[in-house]
Amino acid sequence: MPSRKLRAAVLPAAALLLFAALAPPARAQDEGSPPQPSRGAQAKRDDTNLELHLHMLLASNAEGQRGEVPRELEGVVRQLKASLPYSQHRLVTTFLHRVKDGGNTLEVSSVGPSLLTQSQAQQLTAPTFYQFSVGGVRLAEGASGQTFVQVPRFRFTLRVPVQTAAVAPAAGDAPGYPVIQYENVGMTTDFSAREGEPTVVGTLTTRRPDEVFVVVFTIRRAAR
Length: 224
Prior knowledge:
Layout lengths: L3 H19 L16 H8 L2 E12 L13 H10 L4 E13 L4 E8 L7 H6 L2 E8 L2 E4 L5 E21 L9 E18 L4 E7 L5 E11 L3
Antiparallel strand pairs: 1-2, 1-9, 3-4, 4-6, 5-6, 6-7, 8-9
């Protein structure tokens, strides 16, 4: 039979083995997994808002289309003149909205005067409808440390009036009138851009062969 000293040595060893078996396993972090942000860094990110400036420019070779362009878009106009065969550029409209960094979706619907008709009477009776949505806009840092903005979902649509016919004046003083039909034009894409730098997202043709719409985005951190 074992001695009392041997039994005394065996019992503590068995107790240690039982404790090790019942203790929860340590959770080791994978070597390749990215470090988790601290609570302070996450709270700072949650407080960050972004300003989205969507500009629509009209590029054309038609006389009388020259107009004012904001100073912040002068570099974009130089870029457009170097890459597209249009000499005149003017600002059509600007949308300004605020979104949360990493937020879900911004959806905007608006209406304005017709962009594709020429007489003032048609502009008053045939408006243009704008609709765009932006989702998942997020600040990110590149390898060089420069901040850029990721836009994984962007959709822009115009419902534009197009004159398909004209009704002749009736007898008497009744005026004639144009026959207007609405058509959808637009784009769906994803892109990234440097923070605060105007970026050409795309172009849309019009019914005239010598002009196009240019969609420009500028995204920067909003003031608190």
